[in-house]
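Schema walkthrough. Field components (list of strings):
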Amino acid sequence: MIQGALFDLDGVIADTSVYHFQAWRALIQTNFHKKLPDELEQRTKGVSRADSLQAILDFLQIDVPQKQFEQLMIEKNQLYLQSLEQLQPKDTLPGIVALLEALQAQKIKIALASASRNAPTILAKLQLTDYFAAIADPAQVQAGKPAPDIFLAAAQGIAVAPKDCIGIEDSIAGIQAINAAQAFSVGVGSAQELGAADLLVDDTSQLKLDIIQTQFAKHIQN
Ligand code: BG6
Ligand code: MG
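Field assembly_structure (string):
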């Protein structure tokens, strides 16, 4: 029996992962006059702001002093926040509200396990905050995804053992984090990228609780 559901946010609850990468692209264009290739998008998905910037600078083989690194993070977040200004409840991805309702109807506790420090703001804009019994704070965990820490913190926030939880993710780092936490991983995306997920769906409209429960039951029998 599933007792807890741990949600990623960007790319699962709302399509904000696109905005993250647009902000990185704009930042790098303005500061270094360089274009970021598409492949960096998946590599920065689910990854903390600092780790994402480091990955991008490593890719570009650019070294910056700590002060400039911090300034770049601030600037990126300002660009990202601008794109969130228009965010409304209707921007919640298909099937998510129905899934939250179904979980709640079955008394399955719901927690957020997002790497984003902007997650509480986004949940509020989407008017979804009340569904969440806990929001794990990425600033309080030691290691970001792919480490399990944020999922462990989210499970702890709802007082459910990770093995009794499902985790839902759209990123490679996120699926690795759920698997490392020993929860049941549900991937939203392609098998090419998220092949390590215990259950994979193409998009959020296919996140049906009955299907997830059936697969979860099979998984724990094995
Ligand atoms: C994750 C996103 O959810 O949050 C990453 O997938 C992002 O792209 C990370 O870097 C941190 O977000 P923020 O809002 O704290 O910069
Ligand atoms: Mg995500």
